[in-house]
Amino acid sequence: MSAEVMRARTYRYTMWLIVLGVIVTVSVVRIVTGAERMTAPGTLRAALIGASPILLAGIGGLWAERAGIVNIGLEGQMLLGTWGAAFFAYHYGPYMGLVGAAFMGLLGGLLHAVATVTFGVDHIISGVAVNIIGLGAVGYLAKTFFDDLEGGGPRNLSGYDTLPNITVPGVSDGALKLAEQEWFVISDVAGAVAALTTRISLLTVLTAALVALTAYVLWRTAFGLRLRSCGENPQAAETLGVNVYRYKYVAVLISGAFAGLGGAYLTMVASSSFSVGQTGGRGYIGLAAMIFGNWRPSGVLAGSLMFGYTDGITLLPNSGPLVHALLLLIAVLLVVFAVIKVRKGERTTGIVLALIAVATLAWYLSTDEVNGSFTGMTPYVITLFVIAVFAQNLRMPAADGKSYRRGEAG
User: Fold this and answer.
1) E runs forming strands in 168-251
2) Distance (Å, rounded) from C-alpha 78 to C-alpha 4?
3) H-run or E-run covering 273
4) Are 209 and 231 in contact (CB under 8 A)?
5) Taking all residues of the chain, what is their mean pLDDT, rounded to a whole number?
6) Torsion angle of alpha carbons 343, 347, 352, 353, nearest 10°?
7) CA 60, 293, 345 angle in degrees (round to 5)?
8) Can you give the residue ranges of every domain in the chain?
9) How would you classify residue 316: left for phi > 0, otherwise alpha for psi between -120 and 50, otherwise beta?
């Protein structure tokens, strides 16, 4: 057995152990705090709805950055997708709404690709410009095309058909019954199964399929190898006959289309209506999930689920006690990370994490409920915190964000 196969197998075993450890920890915290809603099917379904648009944006960012293009413009491309989904769904039905959202996001990606690949504009500057243009364009398009429609206005639109939901017979009912028993671990797993099999949107299923497809294409095909080589060493790729410009363009266009679908999720699943500025910064959170995930699909998925959970629970009524219970969970996880850092020789980082864990635990013990104003900030606070904690151990593609001109290899 080769060393590479052994490393891959060890990585899979490690991931499964981490997942099991997280499940057990969450179950213990749920029982200790009495926050039974923590893993209830309704809560996890809200988390799934919160995670999916972030995941689509994050996977979109992964495509671009694996080809060496930093796509800060995910937010603007998502905004364009919200308008595209609403416009095409209103006039042509929900499935054309998906096509329209992907197309509008792709246009945003094309703008970013022309600026960064063809003209060599700084990636951050171009991405910020795309975000500004996206917000302005959506406002203009909404006022132009929605103002005179029934159910429309200068900044909103409703009355279009949304995507169907899927329920798995038998599995859904059984999982819901087990989740109600509040058993240790079993009910928590059952709650997750129920959330995944009860009234799940077709776009959620498509999102999962796109994540799996991304992992396969980028890491299991010659096309993916060439694309990733453009993000690691485009000069070397050029010497091997790879058309670096073409691969960068394809990657950024796919990135924009994925972000556009994230916008469609907001207007057709998370909500049944469109409004200007509907993304609420989720494009940036998707970028954070990609960085947290170390530029790998499985990591992006984990990061999106974490951010989506904190985003989803803020939409639930009376979520203060639930966020309060999360303080204990965060304190426990911080202690675990602190121990890991110390054992790796990173004593300073470990001590800082331990101090934050103590402060979080003190916050939990000194209060009975988290203030509602903080609850709405939770997704953004978690985003900043996670990036700060994990930034030291991340490895981006070597040529990510660097300008490339054809012929440099010579």
Assistant:
1) 200-201
2) 38
3) strand 273-275
4) no
5) 90
6) -10
7) 155
8) 46-280, 314-395
9) beta
Crossing angle, helix 41-66 and helix 297-313, to 10 degrees?
140
Question: What's the Rg (C-alpha) of the chain?
Answer: 22
Q: Is the dihedral of CA 46, 47, 52, 57 positive or negative?
A: positive
Work out the number of other CB atoms within 10 angstroms of the CB of residue 186.
13
User: Rounded to whole angstroms, how far apart are CA atoms 189 and 384?
Assistant: 29
Question: Could you give phi then psi for residue 188, rounded to 5 degrees?
Answer: -70, -45
Instruction: State the pTM of this model.
Output: 0.92
Residues across the chain: 410
Beta carbons within 8 Å of 1's beta carbon, 6+ residues apart: none
Q: For 184-195, what is the mean pLDDT? A: 94
Residue type present at position 116: T
pLDDT at 225 over 90: yes
| Terminal-to-terminal C-alpha distance of the chain | 39
Place of tokens 């556009």: 260
Torsion of CA 389, 393, 396, 397, to 10 degrees: -170
- Residue 107's nearest CA partner among 137, 69, 144 is 137
Q: Which helix (H) or strand (E) holds 275?
A: strand 273-275
For residues 38 and 257, give the distance between their C-alpha atoms in angstroms, rounded to a whole number. Answer: 33
Output the pLDDT for position 269: 95
Distance CA 297, CA 295 (A): 7
CA distance 97 to 127: 25
Reported in sequence order, the residue ranges of 114-252 that DSSP labels E, i.e. its strands, are: 156-158, 165-166, 200-201
**How many CA atoms, within 13 angstroms, populate the side-chain half-sphere of residue 315?**
16
DSSP H helical segments within 315-399, as ranges?
A: 320-343, 347-366, 372-390
Instruction: Report the phi/psi class of residue 406: left, alpha or beta, with left for phi > 0 and alpha for psi in -120 to 50.
Output: beta
Q: Hey, is 400 helix, strand or coil? A: coil
